[in-house]
Amino acid sequence: MLLNIDALVQENELSYAKMADALEYLYKLDYHPVAVKFFWDEQEYDNFPAEKVPGAKMTLCQIALASRMNNHIVKAREDHLLCGNAKTCLGMRPASDEEVEGHVKYTADWDLARECLLAKPMLPLGKLKGFMTAPLGRTPVAPDVVFMVVNPLQAYHILNDYIGAKRVPSLQFNHTINSAVCGGMVWCYNEQKPNMNTMCAGSYTSGKTEKGEVNLFIPGGDMGALVKQLLRRTAQYGGASMLGSPGQEWPGLHVCKKCPMIRFKDVE
Predict the structure, then answer these.
(1) CB-side neighbour CA atoms (13 Å) of 221
(2) Looking at the predicted structure, is the pLDDT value of residue 139 above 80?
(3) Average pLDDT value for the chain
(4) Which element (helix H / strand E) includes 85?
(5) CA 174 – CA 81 distance, rounded (Å)
(6) N or C: where does the chain have the smaller number of CB atoms within 10 Å of the terminal CB?
(7) Residue 57 has what pLDDT?
(8) 3-state DSSP call for residue 21?
(9) Would you say the C-alpha torsion 154, 157, 158, 160 has a positive or negative sign?
(10) For residue 147, which of 213, 76, 79, 98 has the smallest C-alpha distance?
(11) Which residues, 6+ apart, have CB-to-CB distance to 199 below 8 Å?
(12) What are the tens digits of pLDDT across the range 208-255?
């Protein structure tokens, strides 16, 4: 894929397909960014033209995986969800003492486990009717959150570009003892701030987050600004990488910029 960076910089408003192309190509992403949409209206959920619904109960991580790796547009509601943690974070059920019992293994202390459960990000109880996950490049609706699984170096570039786009000097994130993907995206939505967290047990096993990867969440409304910053910076320096010399294309190439041995010169 070749992108016309200069032409994209000049566009006032990028389509989600062009945003996805820029993110995947310039950051060298391994997977599709996932657009997440929350439905608060039953009819809107029912009428949404998804391609797939879960055939059996699944975790939210597994549903997002279908969009991240299989390019599917999926919708789901409470009765599609296997994971109780996701139901609690999405406001589909109240937190309970029974759920605390499943959290004691993280803390070895019942009272602290209860505090950790109640501290998780949650949507308003009983309000959500369902949700969608879709590859960002194919989303038919504006996403509430964009979810990416990236390596730490890709996260470094993405979050630095967010800082440049939004003109904020630093970022803080929310880590809970589990609920990495469900809680991570809910925190991003509630706070309207980027979020980054490690895998949790479910994110690792069900969601197929590898050991060297992190979960990254960007508010949907900020995606245009983020991608524009990436494109402007790439146009200015000739490459997306923030490592080595300006103009380097590959964000993962880590040749020391001060090394006297690794030098190239133009052919005369």
Answers:
(1) 7
(2) yes
(3) 94
(4) helix 84-89
(5) 23
(6) C
(7) 96
(8) helix
(9) positive
(10) 213
(11) 180, 207, 209, 211, 213, 214, 215
(12) 999 999 999 999 999 999 999 999 999 999 999 998 666 788 887 666
Helices (H) and strands (E) in the chain, counts: 12, 6
**pLDDT over 80 (residue 204):** yes
Concatenated DSSP letters for 221-241?
A: GGHHHHHHHHHHHHHHHSSS-
- Core vs surface per residue 136-171: b (16+ CB within 10 A) or e: bbbbebebbbbbbbbbebbbebbbebbbbbeeeeee
Q: Rounded CA gap, 116 and 93, in Å?
A: 17
Please report, in angstroms and rounded to a whole number, the separation of the first and last CA atoms in the chain: 30
- Both tokens of 72, joined, read 């599917």
Reported as a single tens digit per residue, the pLDDT across 64-73 is 999 999 999 9
Is residue 1 very low, low, confident or very high in pLDDT (cuts 50, 70, 90)? Answer: low
Residue in the block written with tokens 């690792």: 204
Mean pLDDT of 70-99: 96
Grouping H, G, I as helix, E, B as strand and the rest as coil, residue 196 is strand
3-state secondary structure of 48: coil
